[in-house]
Specification:
By secondary structure, the chain is mostly helical. The protein contains 18 helices and no strands. The protein has one domain. The longest helix has about 35 residues.
Length: about 350
Amino acid sequence: MAASDRAAGPAAGAVNHKVPAWVVRTLVGVGAVALWVALYASLAPLARAVTYRLFSLAPGTHLASAVEFFVFEAPKVLMLLLLVVFAVGVVRSFFTPERTRRILAGTHESVGNVLASLLGVVTPFCSCSAVPLFIGFVTTGVPLGVTFSFLVAAPMINEVALVLLFGMFGWKVAAVYMGTGLAIAMTSGWVIGRLGMERHVEPWVYEMKAGTAADGAGPTTWADRVRFGRDAVREIVGKVWPYVLAGIAVGAGIHGWVPTNFMASFMGKGVWWGVPLAVLIGVPMYSNAAGIIPIVSALLEKGAALGTVLAFMMAVIGLSFPETIILRKVLRPRLIATFVGVVAAGILAVGFLFNALF
């Protein structure tokens, strides 16, 4: 017995000298970030090498321009998505649906509009979640206008939209989009709250009792939150990458073949009806930010005005026809029409404003 204890002694002592797990995870994380930065910095020369050396395309041709655009933008956008979705996934681990409802319930309505719009940026909800969220918010005592502020902000201002805008246009355009989107969400909710349209919610919604679900067993340690971030990457990037590639492919076609004068003729700054037309075209469409923003990038490069393009993108992402169909389950037509009209008016105002300023 003593001999076995002596034999086990050195092994037990060796275990105590192992590098702590958190140190290993930190080093791996730092190394992964360094590798990410190095790869990101090499994308431009890599795109040129693939286009002109590997494929031997002649510089200045439509095909070469389209291929270089695609080879550069596709990995850049996907890499940005991986990084930012992971970081936002960690932030989202602090916000369960029950916790979000509890934050919004009982607040002053004006404060609630601001909080709801801000929470819409960092919470993992989209137009697909409109009905269950609406029911949950209303039955928990969240004012109707506050609920609409959240429903506008959640699909329109999300981390995918912001990271794509940042990667393609820089932080100023991303900040402009976020600021104007928040302004539309806050204003729309405030206006709807002032109109007193609670009677246009389907009666069965108010007849439901609020659930008594607990806050849920969400992540509590940083290791859990990191795993939550990895799960967000698998779920979100795993779903949107085909839309990213499809959008970039369409954008590459516009970049390579569509004449600048043609695009500027109906989406240019001097075309006053360009903004309403962009909204009318965008509302019936259904796409997410991953699919539409690469197209937006190509449109801007071809002479489309920033305000017109922003209005088009906001209409597609935040005011889609499929969302109104989903909302019909809980809202009567007059309230849906009011919601669409108020949000569309905000989008039009943003389009005209930015065409005047930029």
